[in-house]
Design a protein that fits this description.
The complex is a heterodimer of chains A (about 400) and B (about 325). With about 400 residues, chain A is an alpha/beta fold. Helix content of chain A is about 60%, strand content about 5%. In chain A, helix 4 runs parallel beside helix 5. Chain B folds into 3 domains: about 120 residues, Rossmann fold (3-Layer(aba) Sandwich), CATH 3.40.50.300; about 60 residues, Helicase, Ruva Protein, domain 3 (Orthogonal Bundle), CATH 1.10.8.60; about 140 residues, Zinc Finger, Delta Prime, domain 3. In chain B, helix 2 links the parallel strand 2 and strand 3. The N and C termini of chain B lie far apart (about 65 Å). The chains are: A alpha/beta (about 400), B alpha/beta (about 325). The structure holds zinc ion.
């Protein structure tokens, strides 16, 4: 069951034994690693959500995660009634939502051993929301288990973090990602290797790169940016291009999801059932539909922001490649397929300027989660890059 | 006069225009038939078919009916099948002294009904959609003309900037302005006074003063804005960023290009190209590049605070002031 979580042997060991200890603790045996609040950290794409889900399955399973019993299967399929996955769709998670969450957290499990709440992206909690959550995490109901996820523990409110046991995932190595793509998705060897390398350790991204030509196309568009910054108008055009690429990727990711969600909403209101007209359903469902559309809009915004961050990571990796060549470091490039043009840029620019450029891109990444105006921030970045 | 002129199809996706066409059509019919009975039917309603049949059938006193069927543009299978069939063959159901107005509010739905009606050679009124911003400018012009009023170019632009992509908002704003403002032509001062609470107009004012190289005026406007609305800092930055973007784009367009082509490229009013060209003279690529970096910085401060501490209105104004001064000193 754990093979999907690649390159995380150490964390897997921790989580597997934690699941055992949790059961012992319920039976009154003294244990060393028992905790009812966990924080799983790791860079985007390293498998935080997967780890959380597998951990939840292990906690609920009589055999600590066999992967085959009804309990395990339903957790993995997101249908277990006692495992709630909360994904804050807004850019940050507010106090109202948190209050509801604490109510849910106080409930007894129905079928499972634990009432498990997985809170993805705990870094998006607002300070107020975090404080509202604090008590529930500090003094959880007897059968409640919290699993929080975040990119890094320093992104999580310190009050929350100090109440959790932290499990850190690392960036999975490229060859292990490639192997997964070959085995699980049937990707051919060369493509798997390219995608794994180009994904910067982001497993989901690697799959998209390996399987969707448009995603590859947009990536190479993004990586043209360093060569396009010739004057002020071209800097502005490049910034616009970056924003548009993020929007197109987000469209691709959300369109299908949006439709599926709408379908299942309409079904819930009786679509396809006998004796009810479409008009009636439309009317009945209109309130819920609006709410769904709202949350979809928020998610869209967030995914766009995430894609933009990914483009910036790719740019930063590009300049790191340039730096690697300039300093003669003997490491594999992130963007091996661009080796020629990277080489040329390395020859025509100074080490100092490359370091400055990496700093500029990283500083821009830090500005994005503040709900800043994307286009303006990126224009500022391209202008600075052109000068560095 | 066409053969079936008692049946009228009104179509278009801009509600404002469609509603106006409906109003006018009703008024025209009433001129000829003052006692006509009006029945309005929403095609989406479950009882739409029976209501239609009631309305069509001859009434006790022999009065003529005007039946208005709205929203036939929803997907046909969402409508009552009997209603759809009746509408498609409406000639067999309606007598010549009754009137029928069928309304299609845009989109791909209901085309079956539309086509069937068109075959009957009925009256058809098409309301062309209006595109932002070009069409809005023309629309505003004709609205003022309709009321026998004039408005100055800069005032009209400020108005459009304040209202944005909202045709009904624009129409009602024009109505109000013509009613309240006595000076003719209506000038920028009046529009500003009228919308003094609206951050966008003042944001626009601040932005254009800055890019005109008039820092003092920009700061005066900034001060006024914060008096009225201390939460609009982000908005002001967005306005300045928008104009800056246009200036940068303009700088890349060959000087020989005509104003209309430029206007298309920048999606602005052709009349404002002259204005933008004047603004551009104040700036070098370097000063504009510095400006965008400053704007992005101050935008982040407005939203996320300064070094983790969120800012109050005074601090925000101070930061904006500093930014405007910094950008402004580079103006030629
Ligand atoms: Zn199991």
């Amino acid at each position: 069951m754990w093979e999907e979580l690649i390159g995380q042997e150490f964390s897997v060991k921790t989580l597997v034994s934690a699941a055992k200890d949790a059961k012992d603790a319920l039976n009154g045996k003294p244990t060393s690693s028992f905790s009812q609040a966990w924080l799983i950290t790791g860079p985007p794409g390293s498998g935080r959500s997967t780890a959380a889900k597998l951990f939840a399955a292990s906690l609920q399973c009589e055999e600590n995660g066999c992967g085959n019993c009804i309990s395990c299967i339903s957790v993995l399929k997101n249908t277990h009634p006692d495992v709630k996955v909360i994904t804050p769709y807004g850019l940050s998670y507010g106090i109202e939502e948190t209050k509801n969450l604490t109510k849910e957290a106080a409930m007894m499990p129905g079928l499972g051993i634990w009432n498990i709440i997985i809170l993805e992206d705990a870094d998006r909690l607002t300070k107020e929301a975090g404080n509202a959550l604090l008590k529930a995490i500090e003094e959880p109901a007897r059968f409640t288990m919290w699993i929080l996820c975040a990119p890094s523990s320093k992104d999580v409110l310190i009050t929350i973090k100090s109440r959790c046991r932290v499990v850190s995932l690392r960036t999975p190595p490229a060859d292990e990602i490639a192997e997964l793509l070959i085995k699980r998705d049937g990707v051919d060897k060369a493509m798997a290797h390219f995608a794994a390398n180009a994904s910067l350790g982001h497993v989901g991204r690697a799959k998209l790169l390996a399987t969707d030509e448009k995603v590859r196309e947009r990536r190479s568009q993004v990586l043209q940016v360093p060569f396009e910054l010739k004057d002020l108008p071209s800097c502005f055009a490049a910034a616009e291009k970056l924003v548009n690429a993020a929007i197109e990727d987000a469209d691709l990711q959300t369109d299908e999801l949006d439709e599926e969600e709408l379908d299942s909403l309409m079904q819930a209101y009786g679509e396809g059932a006998v004796g009810i007209t479409k008009r009636k359903i439309e009317r009945l469902a209109s309130g819920a539909k609006k709410e769904l559309e709202n949350s979809q809009k928020k998610r869209y915004k967030r995914i766009t922001r995430d894609r933009l961050d990914l483009s910036l990571q790719e740019l930063a990796a590009f300049y790191r490649d340039v730096l690697a060549i300039q300093t003669g470091a003997d490491i594999e490039l992130f963007h091996t397929e661009m080796k020629g043009s990277i080489q040329r840029m390395a020859e025509n620019t100074s080490i100092n300027s490359t370091i400055k450029k990496i700093d500029i891109v990283e500083a821009t990444r830090r500005m994005l989660p503040t709900e800043a105006a994307e286009l303006l921030v990126l224009e500022s970045m391209t202008v600075q890059l052109a000068r560095a | 006069m066409t053969s079936n002129s008692n049946i009228i199809l009104i179509s278009g996706s801009a509600d404002l225009l469609v509603n106006r066409a409906i109003k006018k059509t009703i008024a025209d019919i009433k001129k000829v038939n003052p006692t006509i009975i009006i029945n309005e039917i929403d095609a989406m309603r479950e009882d739409s078919y029976s209501t239609l049949m009631d309305a069509i059938s001859p009434n006790l006193f022999g009065d003529a009916s005007l039946i208005i069927i709205d929203r036939i543009n929803v997907a046909e299978d969402n409508l009552d099948e009997k209603l759809v069939q009746t509408l498609k063959n409406i000639k067999d159901h309606i007598s010549d002294d009754n009137y029928l107005i069928v309304i299609h509010r845009g989109g791909a739905g209901g085309t079956g009904i539309v086509k069937a009606l068109q075959k009957l050679k009925i009256e058809e009124i098409k309301c062309e959609n209006i595109k932002f911003p070009g069409g809005f400018i023309d629309f505003a012009r004709s609205e003022f003309k309709l009321r026998k009023r004039k408005i100055n170019e800069d005032a009209s632009e400020a108005l459009l900037n304040a209202i944005g992509d909202d045709l009904e908002g624009l129409a009602s704003a024009i109505n109000q302005l013509c009613f309240d403002v006595q000076t003719d032509p209506i000038d920028l001062e009046s529009v500003k006074k009228y919308y003094s609470g609206v951050a966008s107009v003042q944001g626009f004012e601040i932005s254009s003063a800055l890019w005109n190289g008039n820092v003092d005026l920009a700061l005066d406007n900034l001060y006024n804005l914060f008096e009225n609305d201390s939460n609009s800092g982000v908005y002001v930055v967005a306005m300045m960023g928008n104009s800056l973007r246009k200036l940068v784009k303009l700088s890349a367009i060959p000087a020989s290009t005509n104003d209309y082509a430029i206007a298309q490229e920048l999606s602005v009013n052709p009349a404002s190209i002259k204005y933008l060209k004047m603004q551009l003279k104040h700036w070098t690529p370097t000063s504009l590049a510095n400006a965008v970096v400053e704007l992005a910085k101050v935008d982040a401060y407005m939203r996320a605070g300064y070094e983790g501490v969120s800012l109050d209105a005074n601090q925000k104004r101070f930061l904006l002031e500093t930014t405007i001064r910094k950008i402004g000193t580079a103006a030629r």
